[in-house]
Amino acid sequence: xxxxxxxxxxxxxxxxxxxxxxxxxxxxxxxxxxxxxxxxxxxxxxxxxxxxxxxxxxxxxxxxxxxxxxxxxxxxxxxxxxxxxxxxxxxxxxxxxxxxxxxxxxxxxxxxxxxxxxxxxxxxxxxxxxxxxxxxxxxxxxxxxxxxxxxxxxxxxxxxxxxxxxxxxxxxxxxxxxxxxxxxxxxxxxxxxxxxxxxxxxxxxxxxxxxxxxxxxxxxxxxxxxxxxx
Length: 230
Hints:
Blueprint: H1 15-39, H2 53-60, H3 69-96, H4 126-132, E1 133-135, E2 141-143, H5 145-160, H6 169-187, H7 193-206, H8 213-229
Antiparallel strand pairs: 1-2
Region (Disordered): 25-125
Organism: Polytomella parva
GO cellular component, one term: U5 snRNP
């Protein structure tokens, strides 16, 4: 009796995919074969050697019972790990914590200068500045005339003090000449807009309505002359 035969259609797989599957299977076979050979290779350093009790007794320096072989193996493994950790720690300490001898030349001295010779800064005091002068419309600081006269008085007082006794007359003459030149320069200095406006305001107060500047000057000059005659 014959059974009917069935024909199974192969899946539609490309030649490239079929070759890739074949290569994977062959690679898996070679890997298993190499692992099997490696277990039987006595020269493989990754394989653990099977020592006899006699060899352990020689290494441990005394007889070992059969039940103590596992303890001896564990103890030797712990000793090897401890020695390996010590060597690794010592190597890290020597390599990582040691500084090169030339490190000092890269260091910078960042200490601040706290000596008494350091330049000092005087804080800005707006109240005192207003007492000693004022700011005009252009933002220029103008010193009060009173304070300037006081400074000139202090200067003159210094000239009259006993300290000038040690200075010869020629030096005093040069100082006084220089002071007079500075005073003359200050008098000839151009007037500021604020000073000009102040002078115009004072002049307008002395003028009559509809009067010109020339007429006002003549009137004031005539009045001052009559005052002298009176």
